[in-house]
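For practice. Supply one:
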Amino acid sequence: MCSVTRPVAIFVMATFCSVSLAAAPLRVCSDPNNLPFSNDQQQGFENRIASLIAKDLGMQLTYFWFPQREAFFKKTLDAGVCDVVMGVPSGFDNTANTRPYYRSSYVFITRHDRNLHISSLDDPRLRKLRIGVHVLGEQNDSLPPVHALISRGIVHNLVGFSIFGTLNEKNPPADLIKAVEDKKIDVAIAWGPLAGYFSRTLSPKLDITPLLEDPANPQLPFHFDIGIGVRENDAALKASLDAELMRRHKEIEEILQQFGVPQLPNTNQIARSSED
């Protein structure tokens, strides 16, 4: 039994935990249409990272595909059809989370040839420009950028784009970024990995500027550490994953760069830097 209570113990016991897990498959629950994160052809960066980890641990990677919408965790991880969910924000209540393997933020997206250089929610131009944002169906105000803009009375010039789209629509989050290119909107605010990935092949070039905070509401989060989610009682699996994320951090960093993921120093990097 791999019971881990201290960070040091994680690394001391990592080899033992890995061996005990090697005979089992690494069962991952993932969205089949959610690039750049994942799809059922395993083309996303979360797929690449999961494959890297499974190979190292000598485990067979298997997927249970399920759209990442309402009740996702209840119908997947909690239901026991998988053991791992990639890309879970640190502090998420429904899972036990590994150490983060990247940190990103919401970003402003504008056409480079327009020279807008927007970097603040308090930029007065935002009251007149057409602003595209991702929305979540009936929970439109749940995303931080939407909440921040509405709290400033910026409502009538908002243009909502469904982050989910329809079940048959390929890469629905891309519509928001493409709308900037097509001048249907003047500026978009999106989660960094979506912006970085879908803007890579667009022309003209798009400017991507991190949105790190809301000065009017400092508690509203705009950047997040991202790790892997497991069930609370899967201490052995979590220990093995933590060790792998440390061991393969350079390879993971390269994967994220290949997918254009805008990155900030995560809490582990900040902690190491302060100790040096």
Summary: Confidence is low (pLDDT under 50) at residues 1-20. The first helix runs from residue 7 to 21. The first strand starts at residue 26 and ends at 30. The two ends are 34 Å apart (CA to CA).
